[in-house]
Design brief:
By secondary structure, the protein is mainly alpha-helical. The chain has a domain of 82 residues. It contains six helices and three strands. The longest helix has 21 residues.
Amino acid sequence: MRTINIRIIILSAFLVMFTSSASAIALWEIPDPTLPYIAKIRTHGRGVAVIYNSEICKEIGAACMFFREHADAHDTLNHPLYDPEYYTQIQEDQADCYAARVSKPKEVRAAVELMESDEAANYPITGDPKQRAKLIRDCAIKRGNWEGR
């Protein structure tokens, strides 16, 4: 009888672990060459999705992943899911710092270099690109995730 109870407890524990992980909300990434932003986050089905402009991403290379991480940060930080221009400056700064921490250093550097360049005007970057670049660099340095000048 005791063996049966132990088996039931173990089976119950596995079921709880399985159903918890099976019901976790998945994050999707969806390319959309018509998106008027580099990347944004929105609800998708029963979860959330990062939508990114695949054409812009081809042009900006490694910086694209930073912007995708930035979009995901809004969900991770429990911000409401808005179009990029509707976030408060505080929310944008938080998402930039989060992305500066979790992105690969080469992606952070690529995003900073893009925002510091004259090319930034050619892309739908919200806010002041040069101010964002400074904040992103400072956050990456603080977190030990900066490689560069």
